[in-house]
Amino acid sequence: MKLHQIKALVAINQCGSINEASQILHVTQPALSRSIKDLERELGLTLLQRSYKGMSLTEEGRRIIRHARMAVESMRRLQIEADNIHDMAVGEVAIGVTSLTAMLPGFDQCLADFQAKNQRVRMKVVEQRPSHIVQRLREGTLDFALTSQQNTQRLNLDWEALHRIQGAVTCSASNPLRHSRSLRQLQYANWISLDEVDDRSSQFYQMFEVNDIPAPPKVIECASMLLALRLIKSADAFMTISKIATAQNTVEQMAGLVWVDIEEVIPDYPIYLVCVDRHSLTSPARDLFYSLRARLTQEQT
Question: What is the pLDDT of residues 185-208, one digit of tens each?
Fold first, then answer.
């Protein structure tokens, strides 16, 4: 199979039509259709089908597409690395962070120092939930990530533990249940979760799991830290959060919130640097990876 065939499959899946995909790839529609037919014949699979919405993947196509995306992304990174070696083009580093790791002391300064030394390198920092970060790493759209999730998704990824951050439960000072001492007493209270409730690797899920307590039924999933802090007050809700996250927020955002002295175990937030394979990182990504590791490790000593 050829790279242009794989690119054709990825582009049609992204666009939903051969017409738009042909414009993006700057090839004619007949040439694009021929590439897909050749790829299907070589694989012995039907990858695309027409529907009222346009072109969509078949079941076989859905199983193939992740590998196709990774192949296209790997070739893009290969070109970037070759250009870096020849010092011909601007490099690029894409990093994933969570709402917690984005606020780690020293992280922003490390990015600033790296940019000052590598002015031709374009940096992209994407804040997402941990489960989404893992997916993007596997798809190849992130070089590496600084994540804060429980260690339950290690397959096919390169993880390095940096340290752990203490977790706690917070609520509004006006919350009528603020003096509760057990998660069992708060099982039917309102809760805010920064992660997906059914994500087994999330700190929210683990907090109830390790204490053998059913997860609360009334939960608002909110990926925005700033909005979550406001919802704690307006919804009389509780939230599990790291001490470092509250320390890094402004006084105005945290005003009126109190810690809840919970008797059960509140899991720590583990901090990891994670990628597919650190030895396969492009030169700029590898430099930043090790700079971050050194800086963040130093901050904890």
Answer: 999 999 999 888 888 878 888 899
